[in-house]
């Protein structure tokens, strides 16, 4: 399978430098880049079949965490935004369960796609994870499962929606709510989101859509799935340096195994 069999190259010419620069400008301005219909229908159908076949082997877990993904701060009470808990619950299959012939694998490894991601994000290098689990993940959210409010630790995330539920599972975000580099956690702003007085933006994402998102300073979540149709999402993860592994504790938490 060629890259043109996977990506709608006519609409999204990933090998074109001008297109890459336009993508970078859009991502820098909005904090999110949404490429609807990025994946061709036949390739998307293959991804859906692969994800459905793997769902029975997914590791499901639930975590209670703060939006900052940090340990409890003893300087504040439990109801403070630094310590207030939200819940994330999902299933996951890992990189070692994604076939070498999968369109996801071909897309992830293809130089033209990787060069496009580098240009859009401003990264000079992109490398897969050194551990065997973390580069490509497929996430599953059944009825009632959600991704709680949080800030990312990484500078950007790449996701590809494979299957959309009939109701719920909305991607919601508030752009640039904090400035992590400056040490500004904006507790008041986070509290306003958590109590519902500050309304987030919402993205209506359709299957086959590629999303690049800068979530380090933008608070975001995926609301609970309100249907019996599973939400399926591929996460494509790179590192700016070679040889990076997800920690053993993180792998046990998210995947239930180390290898």
TrEMBL record:
Residues 131-240 form the Fe2OG dioxygenase domain. It comes from the Bacteria. Keywords: Iron, Metal-binding, Oxidoreductase. It holds the Pfam family HalD. The keyword Oxidoreductase applies. Belongs to the iron/ascorbate-dependent oxidoreductase family. This is 2OG-Fe(II) oxygenase. It comes from Lutimaribacter marinistellae.
């Amino acid at each position: 399978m060629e890259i043109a069999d996977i990506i709608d190259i006519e609409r999204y010419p990933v090998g074109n430098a001008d297109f890459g620069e336009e993508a970078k400008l859009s991502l820098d301005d909005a904090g999110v880049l949404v490429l609807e219909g990025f994946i061709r229908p036949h390739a998307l159908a293959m991804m859906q079949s692969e994800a459905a076949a793997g769902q029975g082997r997914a590791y499901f877990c639930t975590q209670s965490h703060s939006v900052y993904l940090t340990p409890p701060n003893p300087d504040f009470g439990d109801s403070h935004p630094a310590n207030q808990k939200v819940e994330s619950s999902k299933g996951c299959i890992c990189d070692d369960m994604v076939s070498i012939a999968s369109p996801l694998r071909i897309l992830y490894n293809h130089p033209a796609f990787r060069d496009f991601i580098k240009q859009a994000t401003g990264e000079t290098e992109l490398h897969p994870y050194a551990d065997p689990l973390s580069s490509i993940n497929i996430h599953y959210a059944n009825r009632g499962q959600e991704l709680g409010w949080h800030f990312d630790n990484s500078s950007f995330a790449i996701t590809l929606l494979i299957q959309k539920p009939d109701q719920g599972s909305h991607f919601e975000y508030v752009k640039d709510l904090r400035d992590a580099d400056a040490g500004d956690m904006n507790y008041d702003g986070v509290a306003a989101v958590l109590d519902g007085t500050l309304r987030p933006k919402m993205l209506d994402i359709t299957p086959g859509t590629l999303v690049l998102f800068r979530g380090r300073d933008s608070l975001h979540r995926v609301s609970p799935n309100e249907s019996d149709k599973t939400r399926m999402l591929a996460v494509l993860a790179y590192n700016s340096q070679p040889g990076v592994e997800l920690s053993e504790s993180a792998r046990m938490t998210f995947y239930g195994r180390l290898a």
